[in-house]
Amino acid sequence: MQISISDLNIRKGPGANYAATCKEVFTVVETKQGIGSAKGWGKLKSSVGWISLDYATKI
User: Fold this and answer.
1) Cα distance between residue 24 and residue 38, in whole Å
2) Are 37 and 53 spatial neighbours (Cβ–Cβ below 8 Å)?
3) For 13-22, what is each residue's pLDDT tens digit?
4) Low-confidence residues of the chain, pLDDT below 50?
5) What is the DSSP secondary-structure string of 1-59?
6) How many Cβ atoms are within 10 Å of 52's Cβ, its own excluded?
């Protein structure tokens, strides 16, 4: 996936109600629906957390 914004929050779980963690570029290995994202949430391969798929583009 390619991130479409420069300041995307990585969350500790699949929802906006989870705390934000670091900001980097990662591979998404799982997707789930959750609060705060119309397109769902993507779990990062590094296991650091989840990102909103509203701000990512599959490549």
Assistant:
1) 21
2) yes
3) 999 899 887 6
4) none
5) -EESSTTPPEESSSSTTSPB-------EEEEEEETTEEEEEEEETTSS-EEEGGGEE--
6) 22
Kindly report the pTM of this predicted structure.
0.61
Burial (Cβ within 10 Å: 0-12, 13-18, ≥19) of residue 51: buried
How many C-beta atoms lie closer than 10 Å to residue 55's C-beta?
16
Q: Which long-range contacts (CB under 8 A, 24 or more apart) does 22-31 make?
A: 22/48, 22/49, 24/48, 26/51, 27/1, 28/1, 28/53, 28/56
